[in-house]
Amino acid sequence: MSKKVFIAPRLVGSRFEDHTLPVNILEDFTVLEDLIIEVAKGIYIAENPNRKRVPKGFSDGVYLKLVDIEEGSSIPKFAIASAIVLNSALPLENLDNFSYFEKAKDKIIELLESVNDGNVPTQIDYKLLSYFSKIGKNLLDDESIDFGYNIVTRTPSNAILNKLTRKKILLSSEQRTEYADSIKLFALIPEIDQKNNTFQIETEFGNIKCPLTETIKDSVFVAFNEYINKTYVSIKGTAQYNRYDKIQEITEIESMDILDPLDISLRINNLSKLKDNWHEGYGKALNIIGLNRFEHLFNSYFENKLPLPAIFPKVDGNIQLEWKNENKNIVIEINLDSLKSEYFYYNDFDDSDEKEEIIELSDKKGWIELNNLIETIV
Fold first, then answer.
1. I want to staple 104 with a disulfide (CB 3.0 to 4.6 A). Which of 40, 98, 269, 326 is the partner?
2. What is the pTM of this model?
């Protein structure tokens, strides 16, 4: 079977800096495979007007095969393969229909380039929109996929799919005023409607109705009963947005977790909302990119068995972490630009029992050092 690279998209974003792929991003490439096949069929019909349908077996067994992941950020290399080739002496490129899959890939790349050049199509086949409703749905705000990246010359393209490009494509049809996208929300639960199997979540965007399913029912009732104590939940799922990016409804909830009051992601979400002059007319807004990077590293490398810290903003735009165990205290001041931290330990009752260190938290080594220091004290 030929291992020639068919397409090698380049993924950019904080989750790809370690040159790996989150599992949910692989779902996007499964849909890309289906889209390429569908577009290839359309090209065949267009080029053969005497045919009303593609030949039997046109795409039987055709699939994308992940053969490697290269660095920079993450570049998955896909070959195109076919079960037919397993029983053939010919490489896939020599089979009659292969050119249509190449043309389909090129057409998808051209579409993305056109959208990013400002030439948003006024009408896209509704069937194709269903694929784009899934491709890119799992991307975060700081992430993108360059589908036209040239793996040979290491040259980027303008065929970049991000949340904005995807929205433009999904709203390209005049009949379409809404689009679906993945969500991750922090919310309180003030109301449950058992008769209609729905519940309300209270978010920074307002109250939103959600479906009450068996898989999340226990968590919903716990959070509802703890509403007065401001017990938050995190919700991952799919929401329907209007063209002004306002959530109309949540159509699916994949998971729901009841959060610890000191949950890092919840606290960072709240801190990211601070604006300049947030403290009595002064105080800098926090570096959002630095906050997101800190959150990613904390969730990746902080030991789960250790207690969570309280996190506070500093007026200089950085953050401070604090732990307290009886008379023992740990304070860590973190520079969000460099992730260099100043570690302070002191004992309320013993002035000689103290320690200061500089710890680099931009990589795993620094977090291991921090975990060991905290473990000996708390």
1. 40
2. 0.70
